[in-house]
Amino acid sequence: MSALHIKKGSTSHSAYDLRDPNGEIIEKHTLAVLVENEPGVLARVIGLFSGRGYNIESLTVAEVDQEGHRSRITIVTTGTPNVIIQIKAQLGRIVPVHEVHDLTVEGASVERELALFKVSGTGDKRIEALRLAEIFRANVVDSTLASFVFEMTGTSEKIDAFADLMRPLGLIEIARTGVAALGRGGNA
Amino acid sequence: MTRQMTGAEMVVQALRDQGVDTIFGYPGGAVLPIYDAIFQQNDIKHVLVRHEQAAIHAAEGYARSTGKVGVALVTSGPGATNAVTGLTDALLDSIPLVVFSGQVPTFMIGTDGFQEADTVGITRPCTKHNWLVKDTDALADTIHQAFHVATSGRPGPVLIDLPKDVQFADGAYVSPAKARVSHYQPKKKAPIEDINDLVAMIEKAERPVFYTGGGVINSGPAASQLLRELVDATGFPITSTLMGLGSYPASGKHWLGMLGMHGLYEANMAMHGCDLMINIGARFDDRITGRLDAFSPNSKKIHVDIDPSSLNKVIQVDLPVLGDVAHVLEDVLKVWKSRGRKTQNIGKWTKKIGEWRDVRCLSYTQTGSIIKPQHALQRLEELTKGMDRYITTEVGQHQMWAAQYLNFEDPNRWMTSGGLGTMGYGFPASIGVQMAHPDSLVVNVAGEASWLMNMQEMGTAMQYNLPVKQFIMNNERLGMVRQWQELLHGERYSSSWSESLPDFVKLAEAFGAKGIRVSDPKDLDDALMDMIKYDGPVIMDCLVEKHENCFPMIPSGKPHNEMLLGDASTADAIKSDGAVLV
Asked: Is the pLDDT of residue B1 over 70?
């Protein structure tokens, strides 16, 4: 067998185990990372994900405590259970990272995303788009005679569902913020 | 009361307050103010290297042989990019360094100015942390933070990028005592439940083995002392990674020798056959584990590490213990003693290990008129043991032979590039070691190819009259590459021989140093003694057997119990699909 064409999962003569021990179990986790708001901190977090081959499904970041110079980075990531544990350990190792919370395992949480949809069309399609927007509680934030811009807040699944409905009705552009999330209940 | 001073003066004052006496560096336009401040004081000695990579390796050698922080100073642009290999080397081997780089003035950053590079961007993945300081008032605090981060938790290199205008400007200096308390405070003590579990596992083990690493050395001399006490009290056998040699003495009764790809037969067989593996400050590197699904299949595994991301990263263990090695060992000893110093009778296991020892995996035969590299190292060991001796190495076959045939009785005596495998590490590292220990014997065990990668440092050795011994085992080959090509690539020796080599004796003389050549085994001892006794830098060109392979060896794709020994046939040892993996 050519050395450069190793069968996937072939490990009998390999110095590295090529099989992913939990190959099939991919989990999605939402992580809240509280960081010192200093230059380059976002690059450190993103560099960790690209450098070690982890996935980012969505990422949001903004300062949440101006006096304390804290920013909150919300990352939705996927991976095997071991990879998720590694991601949290590696994030915790970054010097300006104060706290890492895995909202997916730390009890119930609220997750919301904001999206803007530009839908272009006339006639029946335009009317149908507006009707569906009402059902989904989306707001019209811009309008021309041949287009709408809808604004909607909700879970990522709800936004996906609305986008799927709008696509045949003339969806031409979409902008999403990524997930912001907080744990439920009275404790920080 | 705060003192006003320039940024450049602050660098010097902060180093003084941090107890730094030696720094390694190379000047350039963007660090001239700091060099001016260095010129006007006598507390901190600056060692002028001949290349920035060497400054970092020298600082590493200094740090590893003293347990202190290594400090280096480089200019912007090429100065900083030349430092990248050294920083990565220090990151992978967890060596505490504080590196200062110059930068173009703040108002020029981003304009592609002369000798401008995005140094914090380039060095972000190869430092533990880095800072771009844009305000002189923040400089002193940042430097103190840098020392704290470099030495806390798992040590590592940090870098401070200093724009030239920040060096010129005045600001308020704060002392280390007044500096901000960092939120970065890794825990040192492990939970007592984990200590109790660890002791309970020790008490039950019938075939135990200690597997120790660089973390023991990084944890300080107390950690090595406590390790020796625990090993000798329990009577458990102990092996170590390349990085951990010296934490338990090679002359100790329970010492198995190094483990891993070129580790000793008894060490690897003990790892494979044990029922309890106690990993202290090592990280299950792939050169240690070999094939993961066949790694120590029947053992319970304990892993003591100060870095949470090291736990369960490669090998899922039964008991992860997060804490500093010295603290954990101290607590384990206390609890184990208070519970009555219980262990199982491990006589059968010790006997089995004795049988593995009897294989004598390091045996070789020195015959004829050509020096075997193993013989050269064994003679070096014989002639220098008992001396106040420090060893550095380059990377390759000679490095593995040095680890096999030299004996280390104490920590901080062995400096080698483990994680990154940096050819060119050993010579500058030997300079750093000799600066820290001016009266000790410092030998760099080298191959001719590695040594040429930083040979310009002969100038540094001469300038500071550092009597570093460059012991080059010259096989006119990139020996380890050649060995792999023999085993894996059908003996097609593609670019793995050293052509157009210099005359090393004349090269030494050209720098004003002493050059010695030896090729006959009969002359070896005299040549070695000449090298050891000469008061100044020496290049020893020791011509050795050109096609000697480094054994024992776990071929790629094999578990620990399928090692190749010295006289084993190497034909078909490695299947082709293992070939891409190393």
From this structure: no
